[in-house]
Each structure stands twice: as structure tokens, then as C-alpha cells.
Write a structure and sequence with these properties.
Phosphatase 2c, domain 1; six-stranded antiparallel sheet; 10 helices
């Protein structure tokens, strides 16, 4: 499966083409070893291994062909040695035939298992698309990219989330991380996204939006009183781009701060003016949710991510620092390119760099969202575009 944004791709099950040559190699090895050793030493029984090795690698017809080939070479080798009799000849031939039939039966069982696995992954992919839908590639002039990297290869989604929505108040989004694991965390993600979808259109400002999210999590916690309450905690960024997109408003509830990538490759963390706890902790008290406003000039990219990025550690235990790595990473990737990196290229480069830092094994789920405001076109370019006019 390609790790990435949105619904992901379901991988096909089956061996690689090179692996399918292993049974042929076993037969060739048995023949070679038998030919180069004395007559009293025989490697013909090694041919019994070939159909067994072929069971998970080849279709039934080719497994039968491997078995027939093994029987043919076995007869040839025992004929050369002059040992083709009841014990070294016919009995061994019947053994290879029996093992071949058994290998075909094993292959049938593997096929049934793989079919069930593939269907389960297809269902999981559909469920992922419903729980964590792929954000639109653009809203107005904003260019949007998303990626999701699960900590476990067999899992498609976990407790991280992102959602982007065009609303009457501008473009609003949320990136979050539900505390908890398994199906409980996925259920909480569904609640968070559903609550955001409704409140993002209705809430006149981010204060009301956050309040609506808190109420939704509180109600869900009451419904699931028998479940660990911590699964209702969600660290979150709630972000709003007004229609003119000159600024960006951010509410940070215990989440890693977003990064503002400038047109010249600078990286600025948008730290909250006041610390606030994660969403879903209203039973312990009430806290203000300060709305911080930052400039968002043309050519900028807002990068939001979950702590699977910042908590990735290398062999020495050092955490990954995107503020330190991103400027060099972006400049290196953009070297020699006529245009700046797209949001997709930025996220792919960051994911690759984090994987290299952590040895290729994600230590936690990673959800990433990049929103880019294209740079203003030069005056001459604007004049040349069809359908545009300029003041005299």
C-alpha cells in the first residue's frame, strides 16, 4: 500500500516475480550437487523440497509443472547413478508426486486466505475514506495536500485526523490526535470530524467552533462511560483562513504548533500566545481558547502535523526537529527546479526525511496537511492572462 493521504491504496497480495524463481533454483541446486558428488552421495531427495517451496509462490498449474520437472530430473539422476529401483526410484517418484499434490492443497489454502485478506483491506479502505476523507486539492486559491502514515503497516488509519472545509466564513480545518488506540480511537476520530463538519459551517467564529467541539466530545464521553475516558482527549489545531487569505487564525489545544514556510524557504513555528489543554477535558475544568492571528503572505505554505513527526527518534534517541530540518530539506529538493515545491512535494520530502531519521519505521501515526497560497503573479503576467483587465 502506498502510504499517503486520503483513502490510501489497497495493495495486492502475492509474491514478487524474483521469488517465483526459487523453486527452479532448488531443482537446479539439487541436480548440480548430485552431478558433482560421488555416486554413493545423492541429492535427489532435495527435489522433494521444490514443490513445497512453490506452494506459496506459484499457481497450481506451475506447482504441478515443478513437481513433474522434479520427478523427471530425479529419474534422470538415479538412472545415471544406476540406482533406479524400488527404494531409490519408484518410491521416491511417488513421494514427489504426493508432496506436489500436498503443495497444491496448501496453495489453495493460501489463495483463500489472501482473498479474505484482500477483501478485508478493501473494506478497511472504504471505511477509511468514510472516516478520514481526502481533503480537496484546492479551495479558492489555496492549494492543499494531505498525507497519512500509519505506525503499523497493516493499519490504514488510527487516532490521527485532518479535515478541511469550505465554509461561509472562509476555509476552516482541523488537525488532531486522539489519545487512545484501536477501534476506540478511530471512533473518536469519527466523532471529532463529524462535529467539525457541522460546527465549521454554523459557528460564526473559532471560539464558538471550539465550544461546539467540546460539547460533542462531552456528549460522546457520556455515551461511552464504560470506555477509557482518555480516548476522548484530542490535541487539535483549529485553523481559519478568511476569504481574502491575508491572515491565518489558529487555535492550539495542546498540539504541536503549525509551521509557516515562507516563499524564501524560511520556517516559522506559529506558537500559541497561551497554552491550552486538549479538547475533551471540560470535566476537569474550563479553559480559554485564544485565537492567534498571523500574517499569511503570498507564496507561503502552512504545514500542520501530528506528534508522530516531532516524536520520531533516531538511534541515539534524538527527536526529529522539523524547524531545523525543513529549510535545508526544502532548499535541497528545490535546487535546480524552475518552480518552488508543491505542497505534495513538501509533504513527501518531509515524510521521507522523518523515515530516514527514525530508520524507516514509523514510531507513531503521522498526519500531515499543507496549504499553500500561490505567490502573486507579476503585473506583466496578469496583463497577458485572458479575461483579465488592468487599470489604465
Amino acid at each position: 500500500m502506498r502510504r499517503g493521504g486520503g483513502a490510501g491504496n489497497v495493495c495486492s497480495v502475492g509474491p514478487q516475480p524474483r521469488a517465483q524463481l526459487i523453486p527452479v533454483g532448488v531443482v537446479a541446486l539439487a541436480v548440480l550437487m548430485d552431478l558433482v558428488t560421488p555416486t554413493e552421495v545423492t541429492f535427489a531427495p532435495l527435489l522433494l523440497v521444490a514443490p513445497v517451496v512453490a506452494a506459496p509462490l506459484l499457481p497450481p498449474a506451475l506447482i504441478a509443472l515443478v513437481g513433474l520437472t522434479a520427478m523427471t530430473f530425479h529419474a534422470f539422476l538415479t538412472y545415471l547413478d544406476g540406482t533406479f529401483g524400488w527404494q531409490s526410484g519408484l518410491a521416491s517418484q511417488l513421494s514427489i508426486a504426493a508432496v506436489t499434490a500436498l503443495a497444491i492443497g496448501i496453495n489453495r489454502a493460501f489463495q483463500l486466505r489472501d482473498t479474505k485478506t484482500l477483501r478485508a483491506r478493501e473494506v478497511a479502505a472504504v471505511a477509511q475514506g468514510a472516516v478520514l476523507p481526502t481533503p480537496p486539492s484546492s479551495l479558492g486559491s489555496l492549494r492543499i495536500a494531505a498525507r497519512y502514515v500509519p505506525a503499523e503497516d497493516e493499519a490504514l488509519i488510527g487516532g490521527d485526523l485532518y479535515v478541511v472545509q469550505d465554509t461561509p466564513h472562509g476555509t476552516r480545518l482541523m488537525v488532531g490526535d486522539v489519545r487512545g488506540k484501536g477501534l476506540g480511537a478511530v471512533a473518536a476520530v469519527s466523532v471529532d470530524i463529524g462535529a467539525f463538519r457541522y460546527a465549521a459551517d454554523e459557528a460564526p467564529d473559532l471560539h464558538h467552533l471550539v465550544h461546539s467541539l467540546e460539547l460533542a466530545l462531552l456528549r460522546e464521553g457520556e455515551r461511552r462511560a464504560n470506555v477509557d475516558e482518555q480516548e476522548g482527549f484530542t490535541t487539535a489545531l483549529i485553523v481559519e483562513f478568511p476569504p481574502d487569505q491575508d491572515i491565518v487564525r489558529v487555535v492550539n489545544r495542546g498540539h504541536p504548533p503549525p509551521l509557516l514556510l515562507g516563499a524564501r524557504g524560511t520556517v516559522t513555528p506559529l506558537e500559541p500566545s497561551e497554552e491550552a489543554p486538549p479538547l475533551g477535558m471540560t470535566t476537569l475544568g474550563t479553559w480559554a481558547s485564544p485565537v492567534d492571528t498571523f500574517p499569511f503572505p503570498p507564496g507561503s505554505t502552512l504545514l500542520c502535523y501530528t506528534d508522530g513527526i516531532t516524536e520520531a527518534r533516531d538511534a541515539t534517541g534524538s527527536f526529529y526537529d522539523p524547524v531545523d530540518r525543513l529549510p535545508r530539506l526544502v532548499q535541497h529538493r528545490a535546487l535546480g527546479k524552475a518552480r518552488p515545491l508543491t505542497p505534495e512535494q513538501i509533504l513527501d520530502a518531509l515524510i521521507h526525511d522523518v523515515a530516514r531519521h527514525s530508520g524507516g519505521i514509523p514510531q507513531d501515526d503521522q498526519a500531515l496537511l499543507a496549504l499553500h497560497r500561490p505567490a502573486a503573479l507579476p503585473r506583466e503576467t496578469r496583463q497577458e492572462r485572458p479575461g483579465t483587465t488592468t487599470a489604465p
